[in-house]
Amino acid sequence: MEVHLPSRYPDRPIHPNSPGPVYWVTPRHLAGNDGALAERVGDTLAQLDWRMWPTARDTLLYVSPDGLCGAEWILASYPFELGDLPVAWQVSARSHTDSAMVGWNAYFTADVPHEVLADFLLALDARAEPAEGFDGPDVVLEELCSRGWFRDADRPRSAAFDPGFSAGISLELTPPLVRDADPHPVQVGWQAWAQPGLDEPYLWCASFSASVPHDLVAVFASSLASPSPVPRRRVPASTEDRLSVIRRS
After folding, report:
1. Which terminus of the chain has fewer CB atoms gathered within 10 Å of its CB, N or C?
2. Could you tell me the pLDDT band of residue 15, with boundaries at 50, 70 and 90?
3. What is the distance between the alpha carbons of residues 205 and 189, in angstroms, rounded to a whole number?
4. Cα–Cα dist 111/40, whole Å
C-alpha cells in the first residue's frame, strides 16, 4: 500500500505515545529524529544507569557508572556550530577517572537520527576501555560498503557516500573547537553529514575528534546505513520528498 506523508508537520515535538499514525521510513539518515533527540537519547542513558544532573549552563550532563564516559545535551548553551548547525550532544571518554583531560570528544547536531546516536552510546558503554582504540580506519568504510554505500573514487581509503549522494562519512581535518587529547596541531578525524540535495543546507552533522576509536565510529556508520526503517510521526521538511514509507501503523 502506498502511503503519503502529511504535507505539514507541527513545529512542536510530538510525544511518542500521542495519537496519530506512525510512519516507518527509509533511508534512516534523512529521517530526522521526531523532535525528540534529547528525550530518546536521555532514555537510553537512563537505561544504562548513567547519572544525570543539570548544570549551571542549562545543559544536562550524563556520566557513566564507571565515571569514564560522559554525554551532555548542550544545545541550550550553543557552544559552536558544525555545518552552520548548532551542536546538540557532546560525548566524551577518558582512560582514568582521575584524568583532568578527556581522551576524545564527539559532537552531534540536532537532527541526527536518535537511533544512530543511541547505538553509538550503547557501544561506548559496553567498552572496557572507552578511550582506547585498536582497529584501523578501514573498519568504518568496510562497514558502510557492506550496507550498500560506496567508496569515493578519488579517496577510497578515507571517504564513502550513500547511493543517493545525500550523506557521507570521511576522514578530514577536524573543525575548529573540536577538542582531543592528541597534542598535534593538525588533527584528522571522522566527519559525517546528511545533505538532502546539492547546495542545500545540511540536515545534520557529526564530528569525531582524532582519538575516537575507529570501531566506535564504525558502529555509528553501521547504524546510519542500516536499511531497517525507523518510526516517525514527522520528518524534516527538506527530506519529505526523498523518504520512502514502508508502512504506516
Report:
1. N
2. very low
3. 13
4. 12
